[in-house]
Structures are given as structure tokens and as C-alpha cells.
Amino acid sequence: MKVVVDTNIVFSALLNPSGTIGELIVNPIEGIELYSSSFMRVELFKHHKKISKISGLTIEEIEGLTYLITENIHFISEDQIPEEIWKESEIILSQIDTKDTPFVALAKYLDSKLWTGDKKLIKGINTTEFIACMSTTDMLLLRKEK
To answer: What is the CATH number of the domain that holds 98?
Structure first.
């Protein structure tokens, strides 16, 4: 099963690497492949200082932690996503949050689920039936099933 990981999930793992989310990413569930948009790398780098300030870790520690947390995630370039899927995702997200377009479009392209902690996104997307979103609780349930 393929699961696209939203940036807020990785941010949570960076802020609490030994927590549930960090554990689910660093030790993925058997049979689950984690993917994300290459755009995530840009977002993570852009927010290293903020993450450092919140976590109390140095920039170097954040960079090392980012590598550890993302090493099990397959990054896919936005260029690989067909334009029609991208545009359809933008239209659906115009009423939710267009910043999530890379992740929603990738989930549609990979025919996968989107793992996010964004409740507004989950609520909005789940009403469209465009893709399926899952929460960390859903991921924990999958782990119990394995």
C-alpha cells in the first residue's frame, strides 16, 4: 500500500522524533511504502530555523534529524504528475488550501492515501471522494493489523 505523507506529519516527527508519528515514519509498517512530493524538502529546509527554535535543537541537529526521518520516504518530483491531475487537485483545493496541491495531486497520481494531520484538509477532501485521507490514528490501526 502506498501512502503519501504531508509536510505537517514530518514537522510533527521533527518536533517529537520519539513520539508516535516519528516512530511510524522511522519504522514504517510492513507493506506500507511512504511517498511525498519533492516540494516537502523545500518546505522543511525553509522552516529549519523555526523548528530549531521550537525544539531547542541546533540547525545541524535538525538537518540530521530531517535526514533520519525522511530516509524511508520516496520523493517524487511534481513534474512527474500529469497536468490534468494537478489542475483537478487545484480546483478541489481552491476551497480548502491550495498549498496542499503537491500532496493531493501525488496521492491521486499514485492511487494512494494521504496521511495528514490537517483536519480541515481531511474534512474537505473526504467530501470530494477525489482521494482518501488518513490520520495518525488510522496509521496506528494499520500497524495493529500487521
So the answer is: 3.40.50.1010
